[in-house]
Specification:
heterodimer, A: mainly beta, four-stranded antiparallel β-sheet, 11 strands, globular, B: 108 residues
Chain lengths: 114, 108
């Protein structure tokens, strides 16, 4: 079966701009989590959506937001980009919320902020 | 706040040379400890979940163990295809907290 897909794979933006990243979960999976991965901080939890509702949120500023659609696809938005937002953004899907035993990651979107 | 520390940061092994990776953690109410493998340019790939001290899981040349304060990932007789970054994560109340990872390079 098809895995988690993320688009775009690479993105270059300038400071102050905003960006939207997309994640399509594995068919049948209703939970989507987002993570930020940087060399200095490692993998950090951003938020989790289940059935179109945000269930949990990590310690990130309000510039980071997300949403989930009725088909379980999810988008993540970052407004007023800063240089420090350069990172690999990963999404992961699972059948139910909080079931990390069956959580599958996508390949990520590499965001570079200039 | 949950904390995960992995050591060493990098490990260079000769093919067949067994070794262990360490994951130390502090978490209020461990709901699970997870090991992932991440290859360059890819997302993490799930390897194991451990739930309680004394538990062990094996998969091919990998074996994960868990105590109340740390977990070990043992790599037995590694091959070049075992080269990757290995990530450890703990689940506390509601989210996964990851360590920085150990990058393993296995030379033929």
């Amino acid at each position: 079966k098809a895995g988690v897909t993320q688009t775009p794979r690479y993105l270059i933006k300038t400071r102050g701009q905003q960006v939207t990243l997309s994640c399509s979960p594995i068919s049948g999976h209703r939970s989507v989590s987002w993570y930020q991965q940087t060399p200095g901080q490692g993998l950090q939890f951003l938020f989790e959506y289940f059935s179109e509702t945000q269930r949990n949120k990590g310690n990130f500023p309000g510039r980071f937001s997300g949403r989930q659609f009725s088909n379980s696809r999810s988008e993540m938005n970052v407004s007023t980009l800063e240089l420090g937002d350069s990172a690999l953004y990963l999404c992961a899907s699972s059948l139910v919320a909080g079931d990390y035993n069956e959580q599958f990651f996508g390949p990520g979107t590499r965001l570079t902020v200039l | 706040e949950d904390q995960v520390t992995q050591s060493p940061e990098a490990l260079r092994l000769q093919e067949g040379e067994s070794s262990s990776l360490n994951c130390s953690y502090t978490v209020s109410g461990l709901r699970g400890l997870f090991w992932y493998r991440q290859d360059p340019g890819k997302g993490p790939e799930f390897l194991f979940t451990l739930y309680s001290a004394g538990e062990e899981k094996e998969k091919e040349r990998l074996k994960a163990t868990l105590t109340k304060k740390e977990s070990f990932l043992h790599i037995t007789a590694p091959k070049p295809e075992d080269s990757a970054t290995y990530l450890c994560a703990v689940q506390g109340d509601y989210k996964l907290s990851f360590g920085a990872g150990t990058t393993v390079t296995v030379r033929a």
